[in-house]
Specification:
alpha+beta; single chain; hydrolase; four-stranded mixed beta sheet; three-stranded antiparallel beta sheet; NUDIX_hydrolase_dom; 9 strands
């Protein structure tokens, strides 16, 4: 894996986000680092990326990240920027963090998780990929690897496991796909 050419800063404190109400309607603008008041929300996007060998892309978060440094995760993503929709945001985040230009569409959308102050829009996609296709952004990730889905399950939160199993079946079909 080689480093990509994108911005090397993690947790970009100059980012601006659309400030949303609890119904998801825009009510203003928020800058990263500003505290959220009750009733203020913003959007995130995350994607789980599978290859045709039924492996999921696992990424170890940078040790310099503010949240969950060094943890292994099965999602690539981040904040939806001001005036950006979630499809544009997920394409941008995946390109920035792992160097992939994937053709996300509404069909790849799985679920929106609400956990104040965020709406987390989650996507899944299957593509013809191997680890040599991945170009990590070192400010965001320490390393990445494809892992067989049945082995990756041990890294997953029990809260998200039912959703990921549903998405896996959607991508690969059947109970034992």
């Amino acid at each position: 894996m080689t480093k990509n050419k994108f911005d090397n800063r993690a947790d970009k404190l100059g980012e601006s986000w659309d400030l949303l109400n609890k119904e998801g309607r825009k009510i203003g603008l928020k800058h990263r680092g500003e505290p959220f008041k009750p009733g203020e929300w913003h959007s995130l996007v995350n994607a789980s990326i599978f290859n045709y060998q039924h492996e999921i892309l696992m990424q170890q978060r940078s040790f310099n990240k503010i949240g969950r440094p060094g943890e292994w995760d099965f999602e690539t993503g981040g904040s939806v920027l001001a005036s950006e929709d979630s499809l544009t945001a997920i394409k941008r985040e995946v390109k920035e963090e792992v160097g992939l230009e994937l053709n996300f569409s509404e069909e790849n959308f799985v679920e929106t998780f609400r956990n104040w102050p965020v709406f987390d829009n989650w996507y899944v996609i299957k593509a013809d990929l191997s680890i040599k296709d991945i170009r990590i952004q070192k400010s965001e990730l320490e390393q990445a690897k494809f892992m067989p889905f049945d082995q990756a399950i041990k890294y997953l939160s029990s809260n998200y496991l039912p959703y990921l199993l549903k998405a896996y079946k959607k991508l690969f079909g059947g109970e034992n796909a």
